[in-house]
Structure formats: structure tokens, C-alpha cells
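Hey team,

Filing this mostly as a record. A colleague (T.K.) asked me to run one chain through the structure pipeline before their review meeting, and I want the input and output archived in the tracker in case anyone asks later how it was produced. No errors, nothing strange. Just documentation.

Input sequence:
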Amino acid sequence: MGLNLSDRVYLAGDTRVTHENGTYSDDALKMTPLLDRVMFPQNEIGMAVAGNVALATFLKDRISKGLQERVLSSDIRKFYAEIKVFLEAAITEWVDAGNIYVNCCLLFAGVFNGRQKQIDSEKLERLIEEFKKSKKHEEDLYHKSTANILNDPTLKILDEKIRAAQGRGLLDLIEMSRVPEISGPIKDALERNLPAINHPDSLVFSAQIEVATKTVKMEVAEWGEMLAYGAKVKKESIPNGLLANLELWYGKKPQEFLIETSILTTTILDYAKEHGVSTIGGTVLVMPINKKGASLTGKGIIFKERGTKVNINGVIMPLVPFFHYHKKKRADLNLVAAI
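Output structure:
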């Protein structure tokens, strides 16, 4: 899944890889930053993959080389304009080398600091409506919480301590969460009738690869939009309230990702359970990308000095980059992308 928000973009994916013998494991890191932070300190492009690991690895290597040699631009919009022809040439190279006819989907998210992000007032209005709709489902929880705080001595004490520290109690915070919070830059742009907000430009897009026909199908998500792929997964079936909550949630703070990644991870896992999607596995990784770079986070992620590991049902396993699987390697690496 890829989401394009006002001040950041997200890539999210599962950890499951199916092996040639039909078995599977839940220890794969199926996303990676593509830009060298020394060569490209101001921009970021990340990629998530689904489908055949060998083909995805081949394409990842070609794309990384293209960026390093500046055949591909680090400007996410120029990169988008260039990548289709680049991938078609890579597919021809793959086929000419006698490789098998397989498919994969590449999902890209990028930030470019040389241009401001465009906004759309009509799209914002739709997001606000979706936000309000999603909050209607929380009415029962709100009233239950109200009753609990009024009747539960422990919650009363907690309410008093929060009020003393923040000037607001539990009920105030619950009430505030039901009101969409439009960021200052967006408000300022709308009030002044400006076409852009004071945040770096960003773009999310996919490239669906079909080797048999040597075709690449592209799909784009601008600000306030999302893309989703996988078994039984379509972006139309993901509630718009998810994106609206991530964009308009009142507690959102710059450079803080914990709450948002928890919401995103839980939503994906709940969707998988509801629709019987077994390939998502037990852990979803999230890569927030902003102007400072990319970082890895998600449910069950444990950052160790010697590498990043994932907690699967109480078993601590090292995360393996997808481009190591077809090489039969298991690497205990530090996979935190931010520098």
C-alpha cells in the first residue's frame, strides 16, 4: 500500500515470501530506499515490491544503477516520466537472458525538495467528509468512554493527571479526536488561494510488470490518494476513512510516525483477517518517507545493534531483504534506512 499525505508519504507491505517448494516464511523486508543519501541528500525515493522476488531483484538492481549513474532522475516526477521506458528495456534484457516469464508489481513513493506540493480544495472537502463518516462509527465508544470516566475511580484519577499535565482531560482528547485537524500550511494556502502548500512535493505510483507481453502498467496517487495491491486487495476496497484519519487526525505531529504506523498496520491486518488473505502474514512493515530520508517501522519490529529483527508469534527472526532471497542468502543487516 502507498499513501500520499500533505507532509509525508508512506509505503507499507507484508513480510511473507513463498519459496519454490511451496513453503513460506514471514521474515522478508520487501521495501528499500533507492537513493544514496550522500549523493542525494535532499530527495528520497523508496520502493516496495510484490510478486516474483528474482524479477523484482533484477529490476531493483537496474533502477539503483540508473539512479547512481544519473540515467534516472532523483526528482520523483521526472523519475516517474522516465521509469516506464527504462523498465521496458529491462524486461527485454530479462527475457533475452533466458529468464522465466513471471510478473511483479513495484510501488514507488518519493519526496522532492525542489518543488512545493500541490493541493486541491475539493479533494480536501472529500477527505473531511470521509473523516466525519469514520468518526460516526466511534460514537458508541465515545459514550462508553464518557460513562467509564464518570464512574471509574481509576479513570478519574488518570483524567485528573492528564488534565494537570496538558490542560485537557480524557474526555477533551476524545472530543478533539472527532474534529478534523487541517494543518496550518493547508489552511494558509486555501485562505490565500495559493495552488501549493509549504511542503516538499511528493508522488506515489506503481509499475505493474507483465513479462509475457513486455508491458508496464502505471498508476499514480497524488496528495490525498492511495494505491493498494495484493491478493483480493484493491484500493477501492480500502476505506477512504483510513487516509482521511491519517491526514486529518488532530494529534498528528511532524516527524512522529508511531501512532500513524500503528493505525496503518492494524488496518491492513484487520483487512487481511476480514477477507481471508493469508499471504499478508503476521507483520506489516511501514516505511515513512519525508525530506530527511526513509525509516523502517511497524508492528513487531525490533531494532538491534547487529540488525533489525521481527517478532513473529514470540519468535525473533532477522529480516531478510527481498533481494537476498533468490541468492539464497540470509543476512543479519542493519536495515534502518535513515542516516
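Quick notes for T.K.: DSSP finds ten helices and 18 strands in the chain. Residues 91 and 214 are 6 Å apart (CA to CA).
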